[in-house]
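Data card: per-record layout.
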Amino acid sequence: MNTENKYRLQQTVPVQRCTGTVFLTGYPVRKAICMSPQMEKAAGYILTCPSGGNCANMKAQQTAPAKAEKGRQKQEGNGQNMYVIAGLGNPKKEYDNTRHNIGFSVIDMLADKTGISVNTAKHKGLLGAGYLNGQKIILVKPLTYMNLSGECIREVLDYYKVDGSTNLIVIHDDISLEPGIIRVRKKGSAGGHNGLKNIIQHLGKDQFVRIKVGVGEKPAGYDIAYYVLGHFDREEQVLMKQVSEEVCEAVQMILEKGPDAAMNVYNGRKVEKA
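The structure for this 274-residue chain is written out next.
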């Protein structure tokens, strides 16, 4: 285990002693000082100097990760040139291919197309960073369950310093639209969608781009929760795969030409099963 990982786990590391130890004051390491064996006992997190080494050299080695981390955060924090693309859904295998999880399905397709691995667990979601036609993007699948999606999205926007009004795209299911229809909107109410409602609550505004994916109105007498958590049948799966392709194209157009251009092209269009 390397020095950085030892400290990440906040362990006291009883490795070979030499001229002293180095006290790590925070991660990323902001300061490192030489300590006597007596002082190390009182320290929360310590690392023994390597055999034959000295604290002066160790100090320089330990402050380097902090500089690298600071540079990384500065680069990641330039949210003006970055888009956050979030697909809504519920975690766990049992919700795969359900109507409510169409947002997750689109993120999976975007990940496949861009070669981005959406497997970094942080900010209450799964994240993956990469590029789509030269544009830096962060793909997000909230792990909070649908009704608390805003918790994850707010944390991601804050961390990367992204303006949600201009550089956030949310993809979600919509029971008021027929299967095969997508609709791009720049703002608007939640329309009864609990995931959107929570995002609006956490952002304090409804001005963010969203792509609504039609999954069809619930049949008469059906419970709404039962319907949206229901799985697509085989024919519907074929259609929704085509629809997901269309959504990916719409995302690309939003990045390249803006939401108005995407609205003009995709709103009102219907994908027919091939």
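Known properties of this structure: The chain has two domains: 3-71, 80-266. Confidence is low (pLDDT under 50) at residues 1-70.

See the next section for split statistics.
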